[in-house]
Amino acid sequence: MTIHPASADYGIWFKRTDKLLGDAMIPARWDMVEQTALCTRIVNTSGVTVSTIEHLMAALSGCGVHNALIEIDGPEVPILDGSAAAFVHAILKTGMIQQGVPVRAIEILKPVSVTRGDAHAKLTPADELRIDFHIDFVDEAIGQQTKGLNMANGSFVRELCDSRTFCRKSDVDAMRANGLALGGDLAENAVVFDGDRVLSPGGLRHSDEPVRHKMLDALGDLALAGAPILGRYCGDRAGHSLTNELLRTLFADPTAWRFVECSPAMAARLPGAGVHMAEFPAVA
């Protein structure tokens, strides 16, 4: 997978370089999402897909990259260690160019919410993007966790980018019983919990790593709005499909949002504004 520069207002697009016939281009946009339980997958009208894009999208958004072409030679973004750290490090090491064109953002004008069972997600008006998240698991090692962050000024890079996806040993056992997740050691790509134990070598990178990763996922899924969001996102037990449903609900109501051209002061409040390598965490 290679991330290429793109012109102003290009947005984020994926190109499947292994597809030699037909349309290999897929815009990274909310209405291209195909519903899946465990990851975010986009699909174009020709049926070409790219899966597990959420960590990369979070890295792009959290570093303030609004335009890029991502070439990939297969159907899934590399999972790596289960976080966005490697993507963030590569982006910051390479550097970014200010394109001399004002950034357009999506301003939330009124509350929009969706509920599915005991899961809930909501967007409300705010001057910057803030993410608040709550999780509740029966596993003692996870339990209830709550965290909130203003995503401006590099907070994603400092606080969230190294937090890994997680799963329970019972889920791993069920997948393998069904012939899934058989290749390699899942502990290299995720944090595995079993009741009150953390099975992954080295333990946790943060005491509340699970909720931080959920916030990472939410930022990546919100990046599929197609522009930075000025608003507050609240997620309670929410996942990929619920956040996408929230975006679909938002854009179905033209009175709930509007495009705004960001002044320098507004742009300084966007995720990734002014971020630099010194803010990158020492990943475990």
Automatic annotation (TrEMBL):
GO terms for molecular function: metal ion binding; UDP-3-O-acyl-N-acetylglucosamine deacetylase activity. Keywords: Hydrolase, Lipid A biosynthesis, Lipid biosynthesis, Lipid metabolism, Metal-binding, Zinc. Its EC number is 3.5.1.108. GO terms for biological process: lipid A biosynthetic process. InterPro entries: Ribosomal_Su5_D2-typ_SF, UDP-acyl_GlcNac_deAcase, UDP-acyl_GlcNac_deAcase_C, UDP-acyl_N-AcGlcN_deAcase_N. GO terms for cellular component: membrane. It catalyses: a UDP-3-O-[(3R)-3-hydroxyacyl]-N-acetyl-alpha-D-glucosamine + H2O = a UDP-3-O-[(3R)-3-hydroxyacyl]-alpha-D-glucosamine + acetate. Pathway: Glycolipid biosynthesis; lipid IV(A) biosynthesis; lipid IV(A) from (3R)-3-hydroxytetradecanoyl-[acyl-carrier-protein] and UDP-N-acetyl-alpha-D-glucosamine: step 2/6. Its cofactor is Zn(2+). It holds the Pfam family LpxC. The keyword Lipid biosynthesis applies. NCBIfam families: lpxC. Catalyzes the hydrolysis of UDP-3-O-myristoyl-N-acetylglucosamine to form UDP-3-O-myristoylglucosamine and acetate, the committed step in lipid A biosynthesis. This is UDP-3-O-acyl-N-acetylglucosamine deacetylase. It comes from Shimia abyssi.
